[in-house]
Amino acid sequence: MTMTRVGQAVAAGAGIEGTPLMKADSGLGGPLRATPVPGWERGLPWLWAGTSWRVDGFGAGGWPGDEDGAEAWSAAREGEVAGSLPHERKAGSRLATAEREIAAVTGGLLEGGWGTVVRSRQVHGARCRIHGDLPAGDCVAGDGDGHVTQESGVLLAVTLADCVPVFVADPANRAVGIFHAGWRGTAAGVVENGLRAMRRAFGSAAAELRLHLGPAICGRCYEVGPEVFAALGELPPPHPRPLDLRRVIRRRALAAGVPPGHLTTSAECTLCGDGRYYSHRGGDRGRHLGLIGIVAER
Ligand SMILES: [Zn+2]
Questions:
Q1: 39, 48, 62, 204: which has the fewest Cβ within 10 Å?
Q2: Which CATH number is 103's domain given?
Q3: How far is CA 248 from the centre of its chain?
């Protein structure tokens, strides 16, 4: 078991907006910021969880260098967790644009003191990855939309632009999880599957868990067709209609045994909000990150 201790880094980095473990300067024309999960910093001091903001200079227009054919990073790599991820240089592309920003954020988090940041190639499925001993650095696991761990110093990440980050904490067993839940993943059971993975791996009881549904497209902005309602087990309307995906996920989490008092939902919308996050429906190519990790042993 790798036990990366980052308690000193917490103290050293305190005061940076959002997370105590994020280097403030992205090096890409804007600062790195994040919104912590409300209430968890005080109530669950052994973890940090939050959602990164968009970095100035990115967004709908893409990375300026792409137009000039400048080299951009691509950190996308398929396959199993394979050690520290080299940021391969490739010709500019849409993927490289999004990946370059993600790499900037993960790089800032690693410099801020996290030993490992792990994410995966997301496929809008239900697969959840249980992370034990991981190499240091920016790790990309194979396909999957959920991550859980009991390791300290490991930051679990999902990439988002309207989909729901589902943050999970198990105070009884000192375990954390995060799930990427769009409508497809929700319909496939990513939340239920993730909670099962935590029970299997750490003995997490649903009644003990804390859940937070983070910034995502809201129930007024997210218009979807009848087939989406049907896939989610909702009564399909005759025409496309707005859907509150976080309400659907909340109901599923309650059905899985999470107590109502342990379940919170962000009011922030990635589309009609103040623009601090990316919105796929808003035309953004970029992705922000939902992040959760155990900061130190206490
Ligand atoms: Zn909205």
A1: 39
A2: 3.60.140
A3: 19
Residue 59: give the domain boundaries.
7-216+266-294
- For residue 260, report the distance from its CA to the centre of ligand 1, in Å: 24
Ion ligand 1 neighbours (CB, 5 A) are 218, 221, 269, 271-272
User: Does pTM top 0.90 for this prediction?
Assistant: no
269 alpha carbon – ligand 1 mean position (Å): 5
* Alpha carbon of 130 to ligand 1 centroid (Å): 33
Cβ-based neighbour number of residue 279 at 10 Å: 24
Give how many domains the chain has, as a whole number. Answer: 1
- Is the residue at 234 inside a domain? no
Distance 250 CA to ligand 1 centre (A): 17
Asked whether residue 2 is assigned to any structural domain, the reply reads no
Q: State in Å: Cα 146 to ligand 1 middle.
A: 25
pLDDT tens readout for residues 276-287: 899 999 998 889
pLDDT tens digits for 178-228? 999 999 999 999 999 999 999 999 999 999 999 999 999 999 999 999 999
Residue 287: inside a domain, yes or no?
Answer: yes
Q: How far is CA 10 from CA 21, 46, 105, 106, 107, in A?
A: 6, 11, 17, 16, 16
Question: What is the 267 CA–ligand 1 centroid distance (Å)?
Answer: 9
